[in-house]
Amino acid sequence: MPDGGPVIVGISRSTEKIREIVRKVADVDLNVLISGESGVGKELVARSLHYFSSRKKRPFIKVNCAALPGELIETELFGYEKGAFTGADKQKMGKFEAAADGSIFLDEIGEIPMSMQAKLLQVLQDQKFPRIGGHKEIDARARVIAATNRNLEAEILSGNFREDLYFRINTISIVVPPLRERPEDVEPLVYYFLDRLSKEHRLPKPDISPRLMKLLKGYHWPGNVRELENYLKRLLVLGESKELEAELEAAGDGWNSETDTASSQEAVIEEAAKEVLPNKNSREKQFPSLKEVRDKAVYRVERALIKQVLEETNWNRREAAKILKISYRALLYKLKDMNLTPH
Protein backbone atom coordinates (compact mmCIF):
# COMPACT_ATOMS: atom_id res chain seq x y z
CA MET A 1 0.00 0.00 0.00
CA PRO A 2 1.44 3.39 -0.93
CA ASP A 3 2.73 5.77 1.78
CA GLY A 4 -0.08 8.19 0.96
CA GLY A 5 -2.65 5.62 2.07
CA PRO A 6 -5.15 3.52 0.13
CA VAL A 7 -5.78 4.69 -3.44
CA ILE A 8 -9.21 4.35 -5.05
CA VAL A 9 -8.20 4.32 -8.72
CA GLY A 10 -10.49 5.27 -11.58
CA ILE A 11 -11.90 8.13 -13.63
CA SER A 12 -15.52 7.01 -13.93
CA ARG A 13 -18.34 9.05 -12.39
CA SER A 14 -19.21 6.19 -10.03
CA THR A 15 -15.61 5.95 -8.76
CA GLU A 16 -15.43 9.70 -8.26
CA LYS A 17 -18.71 9.49 -6.33
CA ILE A 18 -17.22 6.84 -4.01
CA ARG A 19 -14.14 9.02 -3.37
CA GLU A 20 -16.46 11.95 -2.64
CA ILE A 21 -18.51 9.93 -0.12
CA VAL A 22 -15.32 8.66 1.56
CA ARG A 23 -14.07 12.24 1.94
CA LYS A 24 -17.39 13.37 3.43
CA VAL A 25 -17.97 10.56 5.92
CA ALA A 26 -14.44 9.37 6.83
CA ASP A 27 -14.33 11.45 9.98
CA VAL A 28 -17.99 11.06 10.95
CA ASP A 29 -18.59 8.30 13.49
CA LEU A 30 -21.41 6.57 11.66
CA ASN A 31 -21.61 2.90 10.66
CA VAL A 32 -21.01 2.24 6.96
CA LEU A 33 -22.23 -0.62 4.74
CA ILE A 34 -20.24 -1.22 1.54
CA SER A 35 -21.96 -3.46 -1.00
CA GLY A 36 -20.88 -4.87 -4.34
CA GLU A 37 -19.82 -8.04 -6.12
CA SER A 38 -16.77 -10.02 -5.04
CA GLY A 39 -13.52 -8.44 -6.17
CA VAL A 40 -14.76 -4.87 -6.75
CA GLY A 41 -12.61 -3.37 -3.98
CA LYS A 42 -14.88 -3.15 -0.93
CA GLU A 43 -11.97 -3.63 1.49
CA LEU A 44 -10.05 -0.81 -0.21
CA VAL A 45 -13.00 1.52 0.43
CA ALA A 46 -13.13 0.39 4.06
CA ARG A 47 -9.40 1.02 4.54
CA SER A 48 -9.80 4.43 2.91
CA LEU A 49 -12.55 5.35 5.37
CA HIS A 50 -10.23 4.40 8.24
CA TYR A 51 -7.10 6.03 6.80
CA PHE A 52 -8.71 9.40 6.15
CA SER A 53 -10.34 9.56 9.59
CA SER A 54 -9.00 10.72 12.94
CA ARG A 55 -8.72 7.00 13.81
CA LYS A 56 -5.93 6.59 11.22
CA LYS A 57 -3.23 5.73 13.79
CA ARG A 58 -5.50 3.34 15.70
CA PRO A 59 -6.06 -0.34 14.75
CA PHE A 60 -7.90 -1.44 11.63
CA ILE A 61 -9.18 -4.95 12.37
CA LYS A 62 -10.62 -7.09 9.58
CA VAL A 63 -12.97 -10.00 10.28
CA ASN A 64 -13.83 -12.27 7.35
CA CYS A 65 -17.26 -13.49 8.46
CA ALA A 66 -17.48 -15.93 5.51
CA ALA A 67 -14.28 -17.72 6.57
CA LEU A 68 -15.42 -18.40 10.15
CA PRO A 69 -17.66 -21.32 11.13
CA GLY A 70 -20.84 -20.11 12.86
CA GLU A 71 -19.78 -21.50 16.26
CA LEU A 72 -16.47 -19.57 16.18
CA ILE A 73 -17.78 -16.13 15.21
CA GLU A 74 -18.81 -15.21 18.75
CA THR A 75 -15.43 -16.09 20.28
CA GLU A 76 -13.63 -14.35 17.39
CA LEU A 77 -15.61 -11.12 17.80
CA PHE A 78 -15.93 -10.93 21.59
CA GLY A 79 -13.20 -13.16 23.05
CA TYR A 80 -13.53 -15.38 26.10
CA GLU A 81 -12.37 -15.83 29.67
CA LYS A 82 -10.17 -18.66 30.88
CA GLY A 83 -12.34 -21.68 31.69
CA ALA A 84 -15.35 -20.37 29.73
CA PHE A 85 -15.59 -23.73 27.91
CA THR A 86 -13.55 -26.87 27.34
CA GLY A 87 -10.22 -25.92 25.84
CA ALA A 88 -10.33 -22.29 27.01
CA ASP A 89 -7.08 -22.58 28.98
CA LYS A 90 -6.34 -18.86 28.83
CA GLN A 91 -8.09 -15.54 28.31
CA LYS A 92 -8.52 -14.46 24.67
CA MET A 93 -9.18 -10.93 23.42
CA GLY A 94 -11.86 -10.58 20.75
CA LYS A 95 -11.69 -8.47 17.60
CA PHE A 96 -13.98 -5.73 18.97
CA GLU A 97 -11.70 -5.32 21.97
CA ALA A 98 -8.56 -5.41 19.78
CA ALA A 99 -10.00 -2.69 17.53
CA ALA A 100 -10.29 -0.41 20.58
CA ASP A 101 -10.69 3.19 19.30
CA GLY A 102 -9.95 2.19 15.71
CA SER A 103 -12.15 0.55 13.08
CA ILE A 104 -13.52 -2.97 12.79
CA PHE A 105 -14.25 -4.21 9.27
CA LEU A 106 -16.90 -6.95 9.16
CA ASP A 107 -16.35 -8.38 5.69
CA GLU A 108 -19.19 -10.46 4.19
CA ILE A 109 -21.51 -9.66 7.09
CA GLY A 110 -24.35 -11.39 5.25
CA GLU A 111 -22.74 -14.74 6.16
CA ILE A 112 -23.27 -14.27 9.91
CA PRO A 113 -25.88 -16.78 11.19
CA MET A 114 -29.16 -15.44 12.58
CA SER A 115 -28.28 -16.57 16.11
CA MET A 116 -25.22 -14.27 16.11
CA GLN A 117 -26.99 -11.38 14.41
CA ALA A 118 -29.05 -10.77 17.55
CA LYS A 119 -25.94 -10.52 19.74
CA LEU A 120 -24.14 -8.29 17.24
CA LEU A 121 -27.18 -5.98 17.15
CA GLN A 122 -27.19 -5.78 20.95
CA VAL A 123 -23.50 -4.88 21.03
CA LEU A 124 -23.98 -2.17 18.40
CA GLN A 125 -26.93 -0.75 20.37
CA ASP A 126 -25.36 -0.92 23.84
CA GLN A 127 -21.77 -0.33 22.73
CA LYS A 128 -20.75 -2.75 25.46
CA PHE A 129 -20.17 -6.50 25.70
CA PRO A 130 -18.67 -9.09 28.06
CA ARG A 131 -16.19 -11.72 26.95
CA ILE A 132 -17.75 -15.20 26.78
CA GLY A 133 -17.79 -16.60 30.31
CA GLY A 134 -17.13 -13.17 31.80
CA HIS A 135 -19.18 -10.50 33.56
CA LYS A 136 -17.09 -7.36 33.12
CA GLU A 137 -18.55 -5.06 30.45
CA ILE A 138 -16.06 -3.93 27.81
CA ASP A 139 -16.69 -0.76 25.80
CA ALA A 140 -17.17 -1.28 22.05
CA ARG A 141 -15.60 1.97 20.87
CA ALA A 142 -14.53 0.95 17.37
CA ARG A 143 -16.22 2.31 14.29
CA VAL A 144 -18.08 -0.46 12.45
CA ILE A 145 -17.60 -0.79 8.69
CA ALA A 146 -19.41 -3.74 7.11
CA ALA A 147 -19.32 -5.15 3.60
CA THR A 148 -21.38 -7.66 1.65
CA ASN A 149 -21.66 -9.16 -1.80
CA ARG A 150 -25.18 -10.31 -0.96
CA ASN A 151 -28.40 -8.42 -1.49
CA LEU A 152 -29.26 -7.89 2.17
CA GLU A 153 -32.71 -6.47 1.41
CA ALA A 154 -33.55 -9.71 -0.39
CA GLU A 155 -32.03 -11.67 2.52
CA ILE A 156 -34.34 -9.77 4.90
CA LEU A 157 -37.39 -10.69 2.80
CA SER A 158 -36.34 -14.34 2.78
CA GLY A 159 -35.80 -14.33 6.56
CA ASN A 160 -32.01 -14.75 6.49
CA PHE A 161 -31.00 -11.33 7.79
CA ARG A 162 -32.42 -9.16 10.56
CA GLU A 163 -33.97 -5.92 9.35
CA ASP A 164 -33.06 -4.09 12.58
CA LEU A 165 -29.41 -5.11 12.21
CA TYR A 166 -29.47 -4.00 8.56
CA PHE A 167 -30.66 -0.51 9.51
CA ARG A 168 -28.08 -0.35 12.33
CA ILE A 169 -25.10 -1.08 10.03
CA ASN A 170 -26.46 0.79 7.01
CA THR A 171 -26.37 4.37 8.32
CA ILE A 172 -24.16 5.27 5.35
CA SER A 173 -24.41 3.15 2.19
CA ILE A 174 -21.63 2.89 -0.40
CA VAL A 175 -22.30 0.78 -3.51
CA VAL A 176 -19.24 -0.23 -5.55
CA PRO A 177 -20.30 -1.08 -9.13
CA PRO A 178 -18.77 -4.04 -10.99
CA LEU A 179 -15.86 -3.25 -13.29
CA ARG A 180 -17.90 -4.12 -16.40
CA GLU A 181 -20.14 -1.11 -15.65
CA ARG A 182 -17.18 1.30 -15.54
CA PRO A 183 -14.88 0.29 -18.41
CA GLU A 184 -13.26 3.74 -18.38
CA ASP A 185 -11.60 2.71 -15.08
CA VAL A 186 -9.74 -0.20 -16.70
CA GLU A 187 -6.90 1.81 -18.25
CA PRO A 188 -5.92 3.76 -15.09
CA LEU A 189 -6.20 0.53 -13.07
CA VAL A 190 -3.90 -1.29 -15.53
CA TYR A 191 -1.15 1.34 -15.21
CA TYR A 192 -1.60 1.62 -11.44
CA PHE A 193 -1.27 -2.15 -10.91
CA LEU A 194 1.65 -2.54 -13.31
CA ASP A 195 3.53 0.30 -11.61
CA ARG A 196 2.90 -1.15 -8.14
CA LEU A 197 3.52 -4.79 -9.06
CA SER A 198 6.74 -4.06 -10.98
CA LYS A 199 8.15 -2.34 -7.88
CA GLU A 200 7.01 -5.14 -5.56
CA HIS A 201 8.49 -7.91 -7.72
CA ARG A 202 11.43 -5.87 -9.10
CA LEU A 203 10.46 -6.65 -12.67
CA PRO A 204 10.29 -4.32 -15.68
CA LYS A 205 6.85 -3.10 -16.67
CA PRO A 206 5.57 -4.79 -19.83
CA ASP A 207 4.39 -2.71 -22.77
CA ILE A 208 0.63 -2.60 -23.27
CA SER A 209 -0.19 -2.54 -26.97
CA PRO A 210 -3.25 -0.60 -28.18
CA ARG A 211 -4.83 -3.95 -29.15
CA LEU A 212 -4.28 -5.44 -25.70
CA MET A 213 -5.70 -2.32 -24.00
CA LYS A 214 -8.78 -2.52 -26.23
CA LEU A 215 -9.26 -6.17 -25.23
CA LEU A 216 -8.79 -5.34 -21.55
CA LYS A 217 -11.43 -2.61 -21.80
CA GLY A 218 -13.80 -4.84 -23.74
CA TYR A 219 -13.62 -7.88 -21.44
CA HIS A 220 -16.47 -8.20 -18.91
CA TRP A 221 -14.25 -9.09 -15.88
CA PRO A 222 -16.55 -11.44 -13.91
CA GLY A 223 -13.96 -11.42 -11.11
CA ASN A 224 -13.83 -7.61 -11.22
CA VAL A 225 -10.73 -5.66 -10.13
CA ARG A 226 -9.23 -8.71 -8.39
CA GLU A 227 -9.33 -10.66 -11.67
CA LEU A 228 -7.72 -7.74 -13.54
CA GLU A 229 -4.92 -7.57 -10.97
CA ASN A 230 -4.27 -11.33 -11.24
CA TYR A 231 -4.21 -11.07 -15.03
CA LEU A 232 -1.61 -8.30 -14.84
CA LYS A 233 0.51 -10.33 -12.41
CA ARG A 234 0.64 -13.10 -15.03
CA LEU A 235 1.51 -10.59 -17.73
CA LEU A 236 4.29 -9.10 -15.59
CA VAL A 237 5.86 -12.45 -14.64
CA LEU A 238 5.32 -14.45 -17.83
CA GLY A 239 5.38 -11.65 -20.39
CA GLU A 240 3.21 -13.72 -22.72
CA SER A 241 1.07 -10.89 -24.03
CA LYS A 242 0.10 -12.66 -27.28
CA GLU A 243 -1.20 -15.74 -25.44
CA LEU A 244 -3.08 -13.57 -22.95
CA GLU A 245 -4.53 -11.48 -25.78
CA ALA A 246 -5.84 -14.69 -27.36
CA GLU A 247 -7.45 -15.69 -24.04
CA LEU A 248 -9.26 -12.37 -23.77
CA GLU A 249 -10.35 -12.51 -27.39
CA ALA A 250 -11.74 -16.02 -26.94
CA ALA A 251 -13.59 -14.92 -23.80
CA GLY A 252 -15.45 -12.25 -25.73
CA ASP A 253 -13.70 -9.58 -27.74
CA GLY A 254 -15.48 -6.23 -27.69
CA TRP A 255 -18.02 -7.11 -24.99
CA ASN A 256 -19.85 -3.89 -24.26
CA SER A 257 -22.27 -3.54 -21.38
CA GLU A 258 -23.65 -0.22 -22.67
CA THR A 259 -24.56 -1.74 -26.04
CA ASP A 260 -25.98 -4.74 -24.22
CA THR A 261 -28.11 -2.53 -21.96
CA ALA A 262 -29.37 -0.37 -24.84
CA SER A 263 -30.35 -3.47 -26.81
CA SER A 264 -32.20 -4.95 -23.84
CA GLN A 265 -34.11 -1.69 -23.27
CA GLU A 266 -35.15 -1.57 -26.94
CA ALA A 267 -36.29 -5.18 -26.64
CA VAL A 268 -38.40 -4.29 -23.60
CA ILE A 269 -40.16 -1.50 -25.55
CA GLU A 270 -40.75 -3.75 -28.57
CA GLU A 271 -42.16 -6.48 -26.32
CA ALA A 272 -44.48 -3.98 -24.62
CA ALA A 273 -45.71 -2.81 -28.04
CA LYS A 274 -46.51 -6.39 -29.08
CA GLU A 275 -48.63 -6.90 -25.97
CA VAL A 276 -50.80 -3.82 -26.41
CA LEU A 277 -51.26 -3.82 -30.19
CA PRO A 278 -53.72 -6.11 -32.01
CA ASN A 279 -52.42 -9.26 -33.69
CA LYS A 280 -51.50 -8.56 -37.33
CA ASN A 281 -52.85 -11.96 -38.39
CA SER A 282 -56.20 -11.50 -36.71
CA ARG A 283 -59.14 -11.07 -39.14
CA GLU A 284 -61.07 -8.85 -36.77
CA LYS A 285 -58.65 -6.31 -35.42
CA GLN A 286 -59.81 -4.64 -32.23
CA PHE A 287 -57.74 -1.48 -32.05
CA PRO A 288 -57.40 -0.09 -28.53
CA SER A 289 -57.66 3.61 -27.80
CA LEU A 290 -54.46 5.64 -27.59
CA LYS A 291 -55.01 6.01 -23.85
CA GLU A 292 -55.21 2.22 -23.41
CA VAL A 293 -52.04 1.76 -25.47
CA ARG A 294 -50.23 4.45 -23.53
CA ASP A 295 -51.27 3.12 -20.11
CA LYS A 296 -50.37 -0.49 -20.92
CA ALA A 297 -47.09 0.42 -22.62
CA VAL A 298 -46.01 2.74 -19.80
CA TYR A 299 -46.83 0.06 -17.22
CA ARG A 300 -44.85 -2.62 -19.08
CA VAL A 301 -41.81 -0.41 -19.74
CA GLU A 302 -41.83 1.00 -16.19
CA ARG A 303 -42.01 -2.50 -14.71
CA ALA A 304 -39.16 -3.77 -16.90
CA LEU A 305 -36.99 -0.73 -16.15
CA ILE A 306 -37.59 -0.91 -12.38
CA LYS A 307 -36.76 -4.62 -12.43
CA GLN A 308 -33.56 -3.98 -14.41
CA VAL A 309 -32.38 -1.21 -12.06
CA LEU A 310 -33.13 -3.33 -8.98
CA GLU A 311 -31.13 -6.22 -10.40
CA GLU A 312 -28.23 -3.89 -11.21
CA THR A 313 -28.24 -2.58 -7.61
CA ASN A 314 -28.60 -6.04 -6.04
CA TRP A 315 -32.14 -5.10 -4.99
CA ASN A 316 -30.95 -2.11 -2.96
CA ARG A 317 -34.28 -0.25 -3.08
CA ARG A 318 -32.95 3.05 -1.77
CA GLU A 319 -30.18 3.11 -4.37
CA ALA A 320 -32.67 2.10 -7.09
CA ALA A 321 -35.00 4.95 -6.09
CA LYS A 322 -32.12 7.43 -6.46
CA ILE A 323 -31.26 6.11 -9.93
CA LEU A 324 -34.93 6.19 -11.01
CA LYS A 325 -35.29 9.69 -9.48
CA ILE A 326 -38.40 8.78 -7.48
CA SER A 327 -38.99 8.70 -3.75
CA TYR A 328 -38.30 5.54 -1.77
CA ARG A 329 -41.98 5.39 -0.78
CA ALA A 330 -43.09 5.70 -4.43
CA LEU A 331 -40.78 2.83 -5.38
CA LEU A 332 -42.20 0.62 -2.62
CA TYR A 333 -45.72 1.37 -3.86
CA LYS A 334 -44.76 0.43 -7.44
CA LEU A 335 -43.11 -2.79 -6.29
CA LYS A 336 -46.32 -3.79 -4.55
CA ASP A 337 -48.53 -2.71 -7.46
CA MET A 338 -46.34 -4.49 -10.03
CA ASN A 339 -45.84 -7.58 -7.85
CA LEU A 340 -42.06 -7.29 -8.11
CA THR A 341 -40.07 -9.34 -5.61
CA PRO A 342 -36.46 -10.64 -5.60
CA HIS A 343 -36.06 -14.25 -6.65
Automatic annotation (TrEMBL):
<keyword id="KW-0547">Nucleotide-binding</keyword>
<dbReference type="InterPro" id="IPR002197">
    <property type="entry name" value="HTH_Fis"/>
</dbReference>
<keyword id="KW-0805">Transcription regulation</keyword>
<protein>
    <submittedName>
        <fullName>Regulatory protein, Fis family</fullName>
    </submittedName>
</protein>
<dbReference type="InterPro" id="IPR009057">
    <property type="entry name" value="Homeodomain-like_sf"/>
</dbReference>
<dbReference type="Pfam" id="PF25601">
    <property type="entry name" value="AAA_lid_14"/>
</dbReference>
<keyword id="KW-0067">ATP-binding</keyword>
<keyword id="KW-0804">Transcription</keyword>
<dbReference type="GO" id="GO:0006355">
    <property type="term" value="P:regulation of DNA-templated transcription"/>
</dbReference>
<dbReference type="InterPro" id="IPR027417">
    <property type="entry name" value="P-loop_NTPase"/>
</dbReference>
<dbReference type="InterPro" id="IPR058031">
    <property type="entry name" value="AAA_lid_NorR"/>
</dbReference>
<feature type="domain" description="Sigma-54 factor interaction">
    <location>
        <begin position="8"/>
        <end position="237"/>
    </location>
</feature>
<dbReference type="GO" id="GO:0005524">
    <property type="term" value="F:ATP binding"/>
</dbReference>
<dbReference type="InterPro" id="IPR025662">
    <property type="entry name" value="Sigma_54_int_dom_ATP-bd_1"/>
</dbReference>
<dbReference type="InterPro" id="IPR002078">
    <property type="entry name" value="Sigma_54_int"/>
</dbReference>
<dbReference type="InterPro" id="IPR003593">
    <property type="entry name" value="AAA+_ATPase"/>
</dbReference>
<dbReference type="Pfam" id="PF02954">
    <property type="entry name" value="HTH_8"/>
</dbReference>
<dbReference type="GO" id="GO:0043565">
    <property type="term" value="F:sequence-specific DNA binding"/>
</dbReference>
<dbReference type="Pfam" id="PF00158">
    <property type="entry name" value="Sigma54_activat"/>
</dbReference>
<dbReference type="InterPro" id="IPR025944">
    <property type="entry name" value="Sigma_54_int_dom_CS"/>
</dbReference>
